[in-house]
Amino acid sequence: MEPIISVKGLGKTYAGGFTALKNVDLDIQRGEIFALLGPNGAGKTTLISIVCGIVNPTSGSVIANGYDIQRDYRLVRSEIGLVPQELATDAFESVWATVNFSRGLFGKAPNPAYIEKLLRQLSLWEKRDSKIMALSGGMKRRVMIAKALSHEPKILFLDEPTAGVDVELRQDMWEMVRELRESGVTIILTTHYIEEAEEMADRVGVINHGEVILVEDKRTLMQKMGEKELSLHLPEPLDKVPEILADLPLTLSADGSQLVYRFDIKSSDTGITEFLRRLNEANIDFRDLHTRESSLEEIFVGLVRGKHAESEQQLTKEAQE
Ligand SMILES: Nc1ncnc2c1ncn2[C@@H]1O[C@H](COP(=O)(O)OP(=O)(O)OP(=O)(O)O)[C@@H](O)[C@H]1O
Question: The ABC transporter domain covers which part of the protein (predicted)?
Answer without folding.
Answer: 5-234
